[in-house]
Design goal:
The chain has 151 residues and is α+β, with helices and mostly antiparallel strands. It is built from three helices and nine strands, in the order H-H-H-E-E-E-E-E-E-E-E-E. A hairpin with a 5-residue loop joins strand 6 and strand 7. The longest helix is centred in the N-terminal third of the chain and has 9 residues. InterPro entries: Met_Sox_Rdtase_MsrB (IPR028427), Met_Sox_Rdtase_MsrB_dom (IPR002579), Mss4-like_sf (IPR011057).
Length: 151
């Protein structure tokens, strides 16, 4: 189980090695993603709170990266954080997420990126429920929920 101290160490020193890497040009990303997905995933934007696909959705499945299909979160770790965005307590695997310090918007946060394609997913905070205390606050536009039949 990852804890806040693990996240800070990853962001400061070295992220977990990804299972694979995917790189492509921004032009290729723009052709693959919708304009909203491109803005969030490649330009580090944020979608509107409470008006997104997965904020209030708790159906079983696995949440994957829209960009590369990497499996990121299990629905069993999703919870109602009242933040306006889908929130999870743990990634599916230790190597699913890449972490980076983000001091944009006059805040100090840790950005969560897909560890395979580097796409912006959201941020992770130390104010989640126990036992981990983590809240992965993600953008729905960065995720696709795979049903149990699709897994």
């Amino acid at each position: 189980m990852l804890r806040w101290s693990d996240i800070v160490k990853f962001a400061k020193y070295s992220n977990p090695e990804p299972p694979r890497r995917m790189e492509q040009s921004e032009e290729a990303w723009a052709a693959q993603l919708t304009p909203a997905q491109f803005h969030i995933m490649r330009q580090k934007g944020t979608e509107s709170p409470y008006r997104n696909a997965y904020c209030r959705s708790y159906e079983p499945g696995i949440y994957a990266c829209v960009g590369c299909g990497s499996k990121l979160f299990d629905s069993t770790t999703k919870y109602h954080a009242i933040s306006g965005w889908p929130s999870f307590t743990q990634p599916l695997t230790k190597s699913a997420i890449r972490y980076a310090f983000d001091d944009s918007h006059h805040m100090q946060r840790i950005e969560a990126q897909c560890n395979v394609c580097g796409s912006h997913l959201g941020h992770v905070f130390p104010d989640g429920p126990e036992p981990s205390g983590l809240r992965y606050c993600m953008n729905s536009e960065s995720l696709v929920r795979l049903s149990l039949e699709e897994i």
